[in-house]
């Protein structure tokens, strides 16, 4: 069984070097949460009070339109961070649902603890800035792909970027992520 805090430390140390004392202090601001498949982590209308580091499992962030159709904003797998970041930073109600697609282990940190660590530790603030920038660039790339690329190109890009996702996610969710119907997705796979 993998130690979730060891996974977190390895994740931090991809970008920064921490002493044992520094990591112990940072990790004391996280809580381990284990949830079952289909559990809802964030409900629309709730305030997102936590940012989640995915130790194990897979989640989706989505909005449902008035007809109930899901529009998937993000998948989050191991070593990814997930939240409704607008709600997390502004403390306004969430627009998204974050749901477990598999059993998950998450390390969660409150907005207050995140802000405290950023104010107290330059290394943590530096790590956070790099991760936020990386996330912003990924989302910018995703939005540009939705605006500029056809469905076939979006499908190929997702397949090239995250091939393991196709083994873990039902085709209907892949279709919702790239913005096509399940039938269109079947034609793209030929």
Automatic annotation (TrEMBL):
* A Pfam family annotated for this UniProt entry: cNMP_binding
Q: What sequence ranges are listed for the domain Cyclic nucleotide-binding? A: 33-119
The record, for SUPFAM superfamilies, names: cAMP-binding domain-like
The domain of life is: Bacteria
By what name is this protein known?
Cyclic nucleotide-binding domain-containing protein
- Give the originating organism: Chitinophaga tropicalis
Q: What is the lineage of its organism?
A: Bacteria, Pseudomonadati, Bacteroidota, Chitinophagia, Chitinophagales
